[in-house]
Amino acid sequence: MKIGVLALQGDFREHRISLEKLGADVTEVRLPEHLESLQGLIIPGGESTAIGKLMVAYDLLEPIRAFGQTQAIWGTCAGAILLAKEVGREQPLLSLMNMEIKRNAFGRQIDSFEIEMAVPFLPSPEKPYHLTFIRGPIITRVWGNARAVLSLPDGRTIAARQGKLFATSFHPELTNDLRFHQYFLELAKSESIG
Ligand code: GLN
Question: Cα-atom radius of gyration of the chain, to the nearest Å?
Answer without folding.
Answer: 15
